[in-house]
Write a structure and sequence with these properties.
The chain folds into two domains: about 5-120, 4'-phosphopantetheinyl transferase domain (Ribosomal Protein L22, Chain A, Alpha-Beta Complex), CATH 3.90.470.20; about 130-235, 4'-phosphopantetheinyl transferase domain (Ribosomal Protein L22, Chain A), CATH 3.90.470.20. It is about 30% helix and about 30% strand. The protein has six helices and eleven strands. The chain has helices at about 30-40, 45-50, 55-75, 140-145, 150-155, 160-180; strands at about 10-15, 20-25, 85, 95, 100, 105-110, 115-120, 125-130, 205-210, 210-220, 225-235. The strands form three sheets. Strands 1-2-7-6 form a four-stranded antiparallel beta sheet. A four-stranded antiparallel beta sheet has the order 8-11-10-9. The protein starts with 10 loop residues before the first strand and ends in an 11-residue tail after the last strand.
Length: about 240
């Protein structure tokens, strides 16, 4: 069975970092796109959509999931009906192709009218996007989520810088947690974003305190429309075979 046709993609290239590709998904309401997206979803995915009480999360989920399916089919060279998804013990999703885990990493995030899909050929991967909107209890979230040095930096910031710094730190922490794949079993206040990242750097190498041998590349992808970040596990290259 051929994959459903798409007259106009609602996702486009957003960024590329080494072998990580990040796509932006337009989640603006559009009846034609939403109908097309539904044609890509399997029955279990459609059933999950029906559990949403409101139209906005249904739209965001459908458009992102269909875009993910279309992109994975293109990269894996398969039909949509050959592609499925499963989750790890901690709930991190992965692609399944013809009954076996596919050789590709991905992560998806959406907020408001913006979605991001990150893809890499190997290594654990996490992406997060957040529209910058006023929080109900930012001080409570700061106490719960951020490490002492991060809290001090936020306390010393004011106005727009504090607002943007809050979301930059938030998305970087979320991206790292999603890449690690253990859910929120890890307290986000127990690890700290490298200080150079909130002093202006756009990329850094990160290590979780309890996993010091594993390196992650962390990139701040935020722009004037939203805050965003991607984290990617740096997998060591296998040793070269000896020349005979």
């Amino acid at each position: 069975m051929a994959s459903p046709s798409i007259d106009e993609c609602w996702w486009h290239s957003f960024n590329r970092i080494d072998d990580v590709v990040v796509l932006h998904v337009d989640l603006t309401p559009n009846a034609a796109r939403e109908a097309c997206a539904l044609a890509w979803l399997d029955e279990a995915e459609k059933a999950r959509l029906r559990r949403y009480r409101y139209a906005r999360p249904r739209r965001e989920s459908a458009l992102c999931r269909a875009a993910l399916r279309a992109v994975l089919c293109d990269r894996l060279g398969c039909r949509n009906d050959q592609l499925a998804f499963d989750t790890s013990r901690h709930g991190k999703p992965f692609a399944v192709l013809r009954g076996a885990p596919a050789s590709i990493s991905f992560s998806v995030s959406h907020s408001g009218r913006h979605g991001l899909i990150a893809l890499a050929p190997s290594g654990r991967l996490g992406v997060d996007v957040e529209e910058r909107v006023a929080r109900h209890d930012p001080d409570g979230e700061i106490r719960m989520i951020f490490a002492p040095r991060e809290r001090a930096e936020l306390a010393s910031a004011t106005g727009d810088r504090k607002f943007h710094l809050f979301f930059a730190l938030w998305t970087m922490k979320e991206a790292l947690i999603k890449a690690l794949g253990t859910g929120f079993a890890l307290d986000m206040s127990r690890f700290e974003i490298p200080p150079q990242m909130y002093l202006g750097a756009s990329t850094s190498i990160f290590r979780f305190p309890h996993l010091p041998t594993i390196r992650w590349r962390l990139d701040n992808l935020g722009n004037d429309r939203f805050a965003a970040a991607v984290a990617h596990e740096l997998v060591p290259n296998p040793p070269a075979s000896p020349v005979r």
